[in-house]
Design brief:
Shape: flat
Strand content: under 5%
Strand order of the largest sheet: 2-1-3
Oligomer: single chain
Distance between the termini: 38 Å
Order of helices and strands: HEEHHHEHHHHHHHHHHHH
Low-confidence stretches: 382-388
Number of strands: 3
Radius of gyration: 25 Å
Number of helices: 16
């Protein structure tokens, strides 16, 4: 029997082998800002943990190279990810000297390479298995639930990232609320304004080119530049318009960040609304006219439901985009996870940078998977396939 080799699996196996045997698994630092010393798996972990991690690495490499069933690949990838997540916590306890509150242990390049390679193996298995949207969402929340359990259990408390969090817990959740408010608030405003504008552009082709051109021009402005441009007009409004400052409008802070994210969000919402409405079959409109439906009835009952998956795709783009862009709002006092990112850069404390970057990535990743599942479920072709 001839064994078949998986080409993508060879790349995954090479990344896994490099991360496990050549790159450091954990970094030890005497304090939070000095240069760290890399530790291999055998140095960073107790013998039992090191043997378990290496066992999963070898199994993952073999399964990645060979063309094995998708369910087996997914199971091993998820189990290996869970073992590595627990192992990095064990490394913190193993490397930190007793009664030492200054030492810091953090994941090194080998850990991140292993994480990436195994996540790629899991993603490849999911692509081959083609699970339903509900199954994908269940897997996502199972992973998030595992992370929550590990955090609550204290298994990661010895890591430098969690030590940074422990000293800033109240601030972290305050900035998290601001980040979510900026991302979701600007999305809601852009959706409320953008969908009617998209309908208007669909009905009036002469307006479409000019409006989409203007929104395209806004998209070309770098985010930091747009934040800066808005400082002067919003500052003027705060000084000269009665009550503006009382509701939070000012030159720096949340207001310019919110307005900038709102402006960036308009193009995807408007453009996808236009594309979605343009893609409605002519026969459906003609049949609606034939039974005497008014323009509004056709829009609400025929056109909008058929265009909804495309419109929702624009909303998905906006949400993921805004979660990332909200990080930059910290530069003008808008708050959010960017506060920790820029504080960490200024203090040369990479774990503080990660305290802002990791939850941002998790939020964007979760939003993308959930909305992708909603879009796929709302797509008529998908619904027909499911019913068949």
């Amino acid at each position: 029997m001839q064994l078949r080799v998986d080409k993508l699996g060879v790349i995954i196996a090479a990344l896994t082998a490099y991360g496990a045997f050549l790159a450091p698994f954990a970094t030890f630092r005497a304090n939070r800002i000095v240069a760290g010393e890399g530790r291999s798996i055998s140095e960073a972990l107790p013998p039992t943990w090191a043997a378990l991690v290496l066992l999963f690495i070898i199994v993952a490499i073999i399964l990645a190279i060979l063309k094995t069933p998708g369910v087996l690949r997914l199971t091993i990838a998820l189990c290996a990810l869970a073992v590595f997540a627990l192992a990095i916590g064990a490394a913190a306890g193993h490397l930190t000297p007793p009664e030492n509150t200054y030492a810091r242990v953090s994941p090194a390049s080998g850990f991140w390479l292993l994480l990436f390679a195994l996540a790629l193996l899991a993603a490849d298995a999911l692509t081959r298995l083609r699970p339903t949207p509900l199954v994908r969402v269940v897997i996502l929340f199972a992973v998030l639930g595992f992370i929550a359990v590990v955090l609550i259990s204290g298994a990661w408390d010895g890591l430098s990232l969690l030590k940074e969090y422990a000293s800033r817990a109240d601030t972290f959740w305050s900035e998290a609320g601001k980040h979510v408010m900026l991302a979701l608030g600007s999305l809601a405003a852009a959706t409320a304004v953008g969908i009617p504008l998209g309908v208007l552009c669909h009905r009036a082709p002469r307006l479409r080119d000019g409006l989409l051109g203007a929104l395209n021009a806004i998209q070309t402005i770098p985010s930091i530049a747009l934040f800066g441009i808005l400082i002067a007009p919003l500052g003027w409004i705060a000084l000269h318009v009665p009550g503006a400052a009382a509701i939070g409008i000012r030159g720096i802070g949340t207001a310019p960040a919110f307005v900038a994210l709102f402006l960036y969000s308009l193009l995807p919402v408007v453009a996808n609304t236009v594309v979605g409405l343009a893609g409605v079959p002519r026969e459906a409109n003609e049949a609606a006219r034939g039974i005497g439906m008014t323009d509004f009835q056709r829009l609400a009952g025929i056109e909008f439901p058929l265009a909804f998956p495309v419109i929702l795709t624009g909303i998905r783009i906006v949400l993921v985009q805004n979660i990332g862009l909200a990080t930059i709002a910290a530069l003008i006092g808008g708050g959010g996870f960017g506060v920790f990112v820029f504080q960490g850069v200024g203090q040369t404390a990479m774990d503080l940078v990660l305290l802002g970057a990791v939850p941002t990535v998790l939020l964007a990743f979760t939003a993308a998977i959930v909305l992708d599942a909603v879009i796929e479920t709302a797509t008529p072709n998908h619904n027909r396939m499911q019913s068949a």
